[in-house]
Design brief:
By secondary structure, the chain is of the alpha/beta class. The chain has helices spanning about 60-70, 90-95, 115-125, 135-140, 155-165, 185-200, 210-215, 235-240, 285-295, 310-320, and strands spanning about 5, 15-30, 35-45, 50-55, 75-80, 95-100, 170-175, 205, 220-225, 230-235, 245-250, 265-275, 275-285, 300-305. Helix 3 packs parallel to helix 5 (about 155-165) and helix 5 packs parallel to helix 6 (about 185-200).
């Protein structure tokens, strides 16, 4: 039996379904042993949602995506992509899917970027080459059009990959680590463009180990671990799983040896990092009280707040 899934009480219901997965299970045979890659996975994603699919390495994310795009068979359950079963209708489905894998390229290595775009557009029968205007300016790659793909930097290449995927105006977009290895400027350009796509109503499923992608882009989070689904939450509900706050104090003078006993029971942990620095961990609901008490007890020179965010929540979920 699968574990209980932490889920939001209400999810968006006004749009049609883009993805529907029910009771999905997949096993692999490895050295005469049976490996449960996915066990009883169920969720729905509606048109226009921007959803993060998260999990540690080996959790089953790649297996799930391969099933969704119709390149891998499954053992039990049912899958519907844009109203069709992906394996049986792969030819119809694939023309409506945009897929970007951070570690794999769909561009022609020795050709200029412009030629790759032309080939993709014609392959998918797109006679309206809007990449000459909207798509190119959206991710700032106009100056790259006549450069060979092999001469692009990682960030430049990823921006071109994104445009290449959108040339045929897909209804559903799968993004697997789209900002992996990129510098902060390239990440920001891609995030801004994805935000625009979402506002235009595109359905996007993102897998990423970059917590900035999730926090800045996604409106919902699905987490799988060891092949089982453990979380399906709206982003606000997901962030509320982080119930702790940390206060870092830099002091003008050494604290009293008995400083710990001056704090009440709402302190989870307090420890001296150095003679002039103290770290206090507490529940978020008690943070204001802790801050007031800390300013009274210590001679504070400076203070800082430590927020765990998505990364901290995921670590705790994986540990459980």
């Amino acid at each position: 039996m699968s574990k209980k899934v932490i889920s939001s009480k209400t999810l968006p219901m006004e749009q049609s379904l883009a993805i529907r997965v029910s009771g999905l299970s997949k096993t692999f045979k490895v050295n005469k042993n049976i490996l449960n890659a996915l066990t009883d996975i169920s969720f729905e994603i509606r048109e226009g949602e921007f959803v993060a699919l998260l999990g540690p390495n080996g959790a089953g994310k790649s297996t799930l995506i391969k099933i969704l795009i119709g390149v891998l068979a499954y053992d039990k359950g049912s899958v519907s992509i844009l109203g069709q079963e992906p394996l049986e209708n792969r030819e119809n489905i694939v023309a409506r899917l945009g897929i970007v894998f951070g570690q794999r390229s769909r561009l022609w290595y020795d050709l200029p970027v412009r030629d790759s775009f032309e080939l993709t557009s014609r392959l998918y029968g797109n006679k309206n080459l809007d990449w000459e205007n909207y798509l190119i300016d959206g991710v700032d790659i106009r100056k790259l059009l006549d450069r060979q793909v092999k001469k692009l930097s990682l960030g430049e290449k990823m921006r071109c990959e994104l445009v290449n995927t959108l040339l045929y105006n897909p209804d559903l977009i799968f993004l697997d680590e789209p900002t992996i290895g990129l510098d902060v400027v390239s990440k920001q350009k891609i995030r801004e463009f994805l935000h625009v796509l979402h506002k235009q109503g595109k359905t996007i499923l993102l897998t990423s180990h970059d917590t900035g992608d999730i926090e800045k882009l996604c409106e919902r989070v699905i987490v799988i671990n060891n092949g089982e689904m453990v979380v399906d939450l709206l982003i606000a509900d997901f962030m509320s799983l982080d119930t702790k706050s940390v206060l870092i104090l830099k002091l003008n003078k050494k604290p009293s040896p008995k400083y710990k006993i001056k704090f009440s029971k709402f302190i989870l942990e307090i420890k001296k990092i150095s003679d002039y620095e103290v770290r206090i961990e507490c529940l978020k609901t008690d943070f204001k009280k802790v801050l007031v008490k800390a300013l009274d007890v210590f001679d504070v020179q400076d203070l800082d707040f430590e927020s765990g965010g998505v990364e901290k929540i995921l670590i705790e979920l994986y540990d459980k």
